[in-house]
Records
---
Amino acid sequence: MAKLVIEFDWERDPKGYRLVEDSRSTRVVRNGKGRAPKDFEHCRPLSSTDLLFRVFVNIATTPAGVWEFVRRYGPLTRDGWDSNKGDDVRLVISNAEHMRQLLRYFSGNEKRPHLAVSRHQATQSSSLEAQVIWDPATMVPRWELRPRTLLDALWLQFGQALTRGGRISQCQHCGNWFEAGRNTGRRLDAKFCSDEHRTSFNSLKRSREK
């Protein structure tokens, strides 16, 4: 199956973000107040690192982690662009935990996955625009997907990783998630995200056994 191309252009506040807590919620709110295009900077978060959803599940576990993710990659929802609203931290953390539960299930570390709206729905749904375009390099038609928010993009990227025939495993050394199997450079039964971490793990194991 050909890889679906995810095109995602986003904006973030160059003045940064802060955590705001009240009696009802904790939110990540942008520091800037302006709403004109000049008040935002363009970014392409999916291009900044390999498989951004893995960064998301690893750090979006606390309010401080959500703030750090938004600071690096921009707001996760459209509310994050509104200086009077901001991203709801509880909503973001629940999405990250849903992804982690599915990763544990697909890696064999959890017997029952967290179910979404129905028992046939594995992940959260994503809002996106889809069209067939001519590939500019080959002039062959291909799908192009454009998510509407960063959170939609993360779920779409996550779903693509789950369904393209490889396996997502958790590194026994660092605990981070990595892809293994076809076209990943790692064997399907790999237990480590890199050869360096395999060597470090075995070295630590030998030192403990002495």
Note: DSSP finds five helices and ten strands in the chain.
---
Amino acid sequence: MKKNLELLCCCLMSVISFGQTKKAQIAIIPEPVTVTENAGYFSLPQNILIEADAQPEMKQVIAFLKDRLSVLTGIPVIVKNSVPSATIKLILNKKADNVIGKEGYHLLVTSKNIVITSNEPAGLYYGVQTLIQLFPKEIESGIRVNSALPAGRNYQ
């Protein structure tokens, strides 16, 4: 009986440890509700193009993202209203997505670009916060480093 109890405790500890390891890999605060993972990587290009509408309520989000990326990477960042090959797209939903509410967001990283969608500018801001956290910590050194992100991920 005692051996069975010890075996059960060991199994439970390994399950708990596995769960903690999985969460540590994400390392995003606040932790996304869901993360869908696929293969591939996205790397920042020589020039970063951000596509975002020039609405007054978007100015702070755009300025924050532009500042963080240019300071952290040393890569030039350009913001335009319509860029077919944008590196990062910030999109306010024209029709509200009830799943994410006012402050939620969808962050999709593909091998070609990054798309953040939200119902409100606050959601875009939180999506940008998540994006910044996804880059390797070395990006904050000010020296151009491999800034590859796993692609095919959708964060909510």
Note: Residues 2-26 form the longest helix (25 residues).
---
Amino acid sequence: MTAFYKKLERILSNKKLGSSELVNNLNELCRAFHSDHKLIKRSIPLISSQLGHFSSVSNYLSDLSIIVSLNDKGKLKKFFKDYSKSESAKYQSIFNNLLKCIPDSKKVITLSRSGTVLNILRLWQSTNKNLRVVVCESRPMLEGRLLAEDLLKFGLKVQLVADSVMSLFVPEVDAAIIGADSVLKNGNVINKTGSKSLALLCKEYKIPFYIVTTRSNFSDKKTFKAKNENPNEIWTKKHKNLTISNIYFEEIENKLITKIITE
């Protein structure tokens, strides 16, 4: 296995990163190997088969396929470079739009690990040193711990809590902010399980519930079907009368969302 495919396999098998981070990692990998035009072209179907269910990945691969078909290494290199630059600008724009909605917030809650949320909170911390973030750990893969670690590196004040006790903390925050793995045609959002519970709690306590995401996560799909993942991540117990459900993603109805904020 070549160095490219070893690195690609690590990206494809990573179940803890958000969709935006997966795309960024794919872009940086392809950018490093941009001189091998055929290698990039061969990798597209493989990436699509494993990560194509993410709208941002699907949209990225669609644009990449067009550039690859031109068979121009210069344009391919420029595509990867421009993508990296545009992502940074998008996060700044999303942050600016979010701040218009909740300019005086001092404490927010989030769940799981979203690259967009991470970048938004990093930018926010630079303008508000007293910002506090409650992070729900996100079972079963505990991506919330990864987000907490990154936020601590940026100097934010973080409180990590179990998903099961989020109801104790929602009344204390000014807003909930989560990312989106996909935004359906009807305006509903697909994100890590626990997101809908958080949305319902916010509705009960009249706390604004915001989605922050790039436009690349918008999908043409109208429906979503939950997929059952490896049950051993929940419990390795085997019994003929035992069924273990391990669902990563769920649908949050638009009526539960205060606003979807993009660039």
Note: The domain at 105-261 is CATH 3.40.50.10470 (Rossmann fold).
